[in-house]
Fold this protein.
Amino acid sequence: MTWHVAEEDLRAYAHGELAPPLLWSADTHLTGCAQCRARLAETTDPVALDAGWERLDAELDAPRQGLLERLLVRLGVADHTARLLTATPVLRRSWLLSVLFLMVATVLAVRMADQPALFLALAPLLPLAGVALSYGPSLDPTYEMAVVAPLHGFRLLMIRTVAVLTAGLAFNGLATLALPGYGLLALAWLLPALALTATGLALTARLGPVVAPALVGGAWVSLLVVAKSQVHAHDTLAPFTAAGQSAAAAVAALAALLLYQARDRFDARPLGGFPDGGTG
């Protein structure tokens, strides 16, 4: 070597203050000059160097943000909230593709058989199932991470519920657009969907995230079976009439009120499940 990095340039390099093009020249020179590397080691603060390596290790070990997570962070969502939100099982590609396939198959069946009741019966169950799968130790693989997150349990539940409902209602809405021949009847699933989801959440505080939605879903299917047995072939089922829609709205409002009153139960839950005998 006919030249070496100047002493003041080495000090600036060690403190991250050396500007291009001297920075580029020093980088290239240091890769091949053991003498300058030794001088650089003498100039560098060992404490600052160790801290730099720790930051580098942490950056390399940190999981990479996905597209949705980066979008949420750009929209102002906190990093930990975005991570917990995107970790929701039912927002993963496999679940979304399964729901999309199911809705497409249902729409095709309705168009061929001219029976909108099939779609109206299924659509309210999808948001209920999605919310049920997004919370609880037995269904959510990221539950332990959620427990130690800097969020109240009820707030986390609400964040994930809104995300799941947005995705589920979007799919149901697209399916509704594919059934224009039924007019407003094709939208009759919306209020029952909100009623089932709110009721399932309200009961989750008492019965747990498995039993509660299972009971609500079973009650919905039973109601449809009874309603079907009491109407003629082309009559509208009771839950989708004006009276049925009003009842669904009332149930949704009542369930939302009960859920708000039970919000502290989600914050007081133990790691293994829910209080008061709730399963998890």
Notes: Residues 190-229 form the longest helix (40 residues). Confidence is low (pLDDT under 50) at residues 269-280.
